[in-house]
Amino acid sequence: MTTAGIEIADTPPEEADAVANPKADGCWPPTKLQRALYADTFGVQLIEAVRETAERADSIRGFYDVLEEHEVEALGGAYAGLCVDVAKGRSDAAYELIRTTRQLGGQTSHDIRTRFDDLLAADASVFAASEVTPTVAISMAEFADVRRDQREDVLALVRAYARGCRVVLVAGPIERTFLWQKHREQLPASVKEDCNPRLGESASPVAVREQVAEARDALQPDSKPVQILRAIASESSETATYNALAGEMAVNRGTIRNHVTQRLVPNELVDRFDHLNTAHVSLTHIGQAFLDALDSDVGVQSRFEGCVKDAGQAVTDSRDDPRTHTWAPPQAEGGGGSADRHRLADRHVVSTMARWQHAAAANAAPKQGVGLVDHDIGEKEDRGEPHWSYDSDADRLVVGGEYTNPLSFWVCVARALASPLTFRHVLPPERLDGETGGEASEEFADLLHDHRGILRSTRCLGYLSGEATDGEAYISELQDAEEHLCELTRRWKHGEFECSAAEYRGIVTREALGLAGTMVHLLDLCGVDVVREARVPNLPTFDAKDEETLCRTLAVGASIQSRYGQFAAYRQLFEDREEKRERSFSPKVDAADPVGELIGSFVIVGPGVSGLADGLESALERPADLHEDAPEFSVHVPIQAEPRRRDYARTARALCSIKDLSVTRAAVSVLQAFAGSPYDVAAALHSLAPEEKALGRDIRVSECRFALATLSADRIVPEATPSESMLLHTLFTADEPLSPTEIEARGGPSTRSIRRIRNDPDYGFKALDIIQSTEDGRLRLAVAFNTDKERGVTRLPWWASHDDSPDPDTSHIQNVLAGDSPPDELTHPAAQEPQFARLRRANATLRESWYDLRENGWLQRLRALAGVSGEQDPPPTTATFGGATPQASLGGAAMGVAD
Fold this sequence. Notes:
Elements: E1 5-9, E2 18-20, H1 22-25, H2 30-37, H3 42-55, H4 60-69, H5 78-88, H6 93-103, H7 116-120, H8 123-129, E3 135-139, H9 148-162, E4 166-170, H10 173-183, H11 189-195, H12 205-218, H13 224-234, E5 239-241, H14 242-249, H15 253-264, E6 270-275, E7 278-283, H16 285-298, E8 351-352, H17 355-364, E9 370-374, E10 387-391, E11 396-402, H18 406-417, H19 420-426, H20 429-432, H21 438-450, H22 452-459, H23 471-494, H24 501-525, E12 529-535, H25 544-560, E13 562-564, E14 567-568, H26 569-574, H27 578-582, E15 595-598, E16 601-606, H28 613-621, E17 634-640, H29 645-658, E18 661-662, H30 665-674, H31 678-686, E19 697-698, H32 701-709, H33 722-733, H34 740-745, H35 751-759, E20 771-773, E21 779-781, H36 808-818, H37 837-855, H38 858-866, E22 877-882, H39 886-898
Parallel strand pairs: 1-4, 2-3, 3-4, 8-10, 9-16, 9-17, 11-12, 12-16, 15-17, 18-19
Antiparallel strand pairs: 5-7, 6-7, 10-11, 13-14, 13-15, 17-22, 20-21
């Protein structure tokens, strides 16, 4: 069994999980040294340590407690949160944890500037909490040439890792002597004595046993000198100053000095030396053996935290290990995952979305409409977990959940909307009272304070009791409503209802829809844009009835969350309870503008969701039956069956803004041409480091290439064949042309598949220069490498030029791609000139393969790369519900299309 601690050795152990050679790699700064450790399989060990520790915790809260106990405090506690995400099995959590770990000590990809202290309180503390004990080898060659402050930081990092790792310092006689002379105050006893050039016979096992026996005869186990010795041993370097010991033991400095000089030094249990004009006391190898002997005999359970060992000689640590637990997280129903996907609503924590996820959802939805995004989004570890995100600059709130049935989805949405996060960051009491938030909030505050009846009668705001006369009181009512909703779900879970299951399910769903509707109207009144995201990862398993139920519940929710002017559309159009209608004001419909609107947007994301477009349109046309006195207005809801170029551009712009970059037309073209969806674009650009020098500069094509390479192969042109996606992905990850054999060796398609792809005229890779061949048969993408040579070059296929004045052959191909029919044959004599050979080949490829390219999706990809896909973007269809005249509906439909 590998034991944590520090060793000195002449060569790195063969079983090392991580090896760093700072002299050769130039990585003596601690941040670079830590990154060097993660060059190989050390990240796998970290993930294993997280999962092993979580399995022994009694709950997720218990896991948090273990991490806190072992001082996993990096990033203000956010690092522990990443560990919990890994333990829960969240998608990409392992990758995010390793990447964040490698960025500690500098600027992270989340725009957080970290400190050296974060480096010490992150992965090293995780290993200390776990029973996974990796072996780390660090060469100390030329350590003496490093600055003193940097050497001290390196040794601090070594000591931190030694709490949970076996750290082997590879050092020759010169380096050992230097460590003993200059840094023995920072090293544990076993290492110091291994480095001590004066140590001779006193290190022999016989001599050590004899000296330990003499010390045991002279000192009682519970005596003050032994207590001081244990305090010294508890330090990670097994070294302490007199002042530090005096403070810890609550005695004066003179008492410490007397016990050290009169009892501990004569028995060779400690060394005394001066460092920076301050007296230090350091545990010796005999002192360590003395404490081991005491612990073996009398079971004392207080030892230094880092279990240190002599080279090749294990040291027994008999401490009670706080890392030992017996709980393993429950398995999700249906196998897979480590958390319960079926818990009660009040046990689902509202999670915050990452900024890139917020950007993807916010920009994939058409304004006041419904966007459908075909994207293979994974299941949540906790299917009932609502998610939430707020962009204060745009004043836009994104909420949502995973759709499995109407009840669970609307409970997620309602709880996210009415969560404490909303009332803390979006709608604090002062905004509802008109003190912040601008004119919209001032108008709402006036109604809340003096005209609550108007709010109930027009917008149908619920939970407005007579006591809710200000923002704080109304928030309290809404929070009570959210708690009541959770109580209803608890009763549902335990069968604590008297009606039928179907009836009670309807009660809970209506309660959730009511709370969600109130919150959406409230946010709208205060000027906040709202996006609702429905994740449907299991849509391929839905039957026709499941799809119909999904479309209908979304239609009902959308109608409740719509308005005509300041009037809730559902109450005016569909309310079948006459007493409710009588208590409501009726709108005066403007014959010139009898069109209402959906509040905010919906985005539905999942594999194959574009196939829901027709069913959703039908459901929205009639979410409920019009009552006989319904006013003559209608609500038009645009439905966008697939993302448009504008959506890719807005998503790229949002992510570039986060990175202090500016988006370009060429960048949007590359991203749209190869990424599977705007969600993929957001995930890819999220991988870029923030710009720190030329803030606001244009993003480079080479950076888009790097970003796309971080996606999995199945997210590169996902409608292509697997071999094509693998080929493109492998070429994206390369920084030089590759031979077919090298492509296969890197996990790409076989050489046979590559030949088939290149020879298939339908895809036109060769003729259209998406994949280019070198003279020796190597392949590369016609997108700039992220290398010094090409980093600043906007390299794209010749016909994808984004110059304001493209040459004639470029213009010809772009015009062809912007059209809806194949090109004519080039018969003009001038086109037969040698300089137009590439134009003839490209034109012939498009002419011969046009319909095949359109059928397999490649034509739209080519249009995207040429920057002309927007001209072929289909307009959204418009679903219309309500009682407007057909003429008015046509006008509204036109308005929806214009959006």
